[in-house]
Design goal:
It is built from 13 helices and 16 strands. By secondary structure, it is α/β, with parallel strands linked by helices. The model has no long low-confidence stretch (mean pLDDT 96).
Length: 451
């Protein structure tokens, strides 16, 4: 669809937003949200007729792009047939969504508990782990994000936790592997893996293994920087969990459903956790949906014992119908395979080529359509282009980079000193190359800030 200008409507939309909408993670008086007029595929546009290639996939969830006609039609059909129904009943869309998800999860994670999104999925996964083990503590990594609800935000390992960290949530943080900024002074992936596993096991020993219910990790951390774990790390965590009777939870809210070029990122590492949390890509965010995929052993805990948790909209028919249609589209149109191919042949090589020419790029990392560029002031010292959790004037370099992206028709995903290349999983080769060209121009602006 070709966007057309309608500034008067855009001004009215913006005015109503500023008068009444309270935005998340924002100082309300300092933001200027773009008024969006429409979206289709990998693009969206504003009321002034400006069109943007979305390299954010919304919030990394429109895995099949915007307004896919088959998913829109499925939602419309479900609304006409049964728009909503309470979660205690067996409903066709809910049953089918659960079956299709279970078919794609690794191992025996065949029971699905539906939530409204990723944070609620994490909340319930941790509750299940604590009830299953009878233990109170949860271990999670720094450089992570697991959601904004009470437990999920305390598990989170980035600055969004700080304002809500009550210190009594039973959460202990540890360092996961990240060779580029290694907390273990490693020089190889093998060293980083071994030292990270030793650090984790030492943390468990000093916390008391018998007190730890779960270890939760993003299979590949998302917002925190898309740090693909080194070979052997997740298998090592699995072994540690088995040895101490700890529940292993993988958070696939962002990395799941094709994002990494596999149905679940765990597939790349041959690891089967006890619980998987999911959301976002399960139905491309068309209707809010998340959930927990549960192993047979943990599910059996609640065969005769009621699970003390639930949600009014758990497995909402409209959301589940969207999930069924999305999974069918992904299978029929080979969306997962496309994500893998675009990552291997276009995004990966293209981003690495940009790194060779732009001194502001310190590292490129990723899989599928899940990539991060680490921007630095100095490649030798690896000093970030802006300080950790920078804002205001301290963040000027990244703000200038972001403005340059938008000027060139690219909507970027920016967090701290990184930009992420996370387009739709069905992005075309031509669209990916268009995004690379816009990044190329914007990185020239970032280069001006290099020491």
């Amino acid at each position: 669809m070709t966007p057309h200008a309608d500034p008067q409507t855009g001004a009215a939309v913006k005015a109503a937003d500023r008068a009444h909408v309270f935005h998340s993670w924002s100082a309300q008086g300092l933001i200027d949200p773009l008024a969006v007029a429409g979206a289709e595929g990998s693009y969206f546009w504003d009321y002034d007729g400006n069109r943007y290639l979305d390299f954010t996939s919304g919030l990394v969830y429109t895995n099949i792009g915007y307004q896919h006609p088959k998913v829109v039609a499925a939602i419309q059909e479900q609304a006409g047939k049964l728009a909503t129904f309470a979660p205690a009943f067996a409903v066709e869309a809910r049953s089918e969504a659960a079956r299709l998800i279970a078919e794609r999860t690794p191992g025996d994670l065949d029971k699905i508990f539906f939530t409204n999104g990723g944070a609620e999925a994490v909340e319930n996964a941790i509750r299940m782990a604590r009830l299953h083990t009878g233990r109170p503590k949860v271990l999670s990594a720094y450089r992570s994000y697991h959601g904004g609800t009470a437990t999920a935000v305390n598990i989170t390992g980035d600055p969004r936790r700080w304002a809500s960290d009550n210190g009594t949530a039973g959460v202990v943080h540890f360092w996961a592997p990240f060779l580029y900024r290694s907390p273990f002074y490693s020089s190889t992936e093998a060293e980083e893996c071994a030292r990270a596993l030793t650090h984790l096991e030492d943390t468990i020993a000093f916390e008391g293994p018998q007190t730890i219910a779960a270890i939760i990790l993003e299979t590949i951390p998302g917002t925190a920087g898309i740090m693909t774990p080194p070979p052997g790390y997740l298998a090592g965590v699995r072994e540690i969990c088995d040895r101490y009777g700890i529940v292993f939870v993988l958070d696939e809210v962002m990395a799941g459903f094709g994002r990494t070029g596999a149905w679940f990122a765990a597939d790349h590492f041959g690891v089967v956790p006890d619980l998987i949390t999911f959301a976002k890509g399960v139905n491309s965010g068309y209707v809010p949906l998340g959930g927990v995929a549960i192993s047979a052993e943990i599910a059996a805990t609640f065969d005769k014992r009621p699970y003390p948790g639930g949600l009014t909209y758990s497995g909402h028919p409209l959301a589940c119908a969207a999930a069924v249609a999305t999974i069918q589209v992904m299978a029929d149109e080979k969306v997962v395979e496309n994500a893998a191919a675009v990552g291997e042949t276009v995004l990966g090589p293209g981003l690495r080529e940009l790194a060779e020419r732009h001194p502001s790029v310190g590292e490129v990392r990723g899989l599928g359509v899940f990539w991060a560029l680490e921007l630095v002031r100095d490649r030798e010292t690896r000093e970030p282009l802006v300080p950790y959790n920078a804002s205001g004037e301290a963040n000027a370099a990244m703000a200038a980079f972001g403005a340059a992206c938008k000027k060139n028709g690219l909507w970027p995903f920016i967090n701290m000193n990184r930009t992420h290349a996370v387009p739709a999983c069905n992005v075309s080769e031509a669209e990916a190359k268009e995004g690379l060209a816009a990044l190329d121009a914007a990185l020239s602006v970032a280069d001006e800030w290099v020491a």
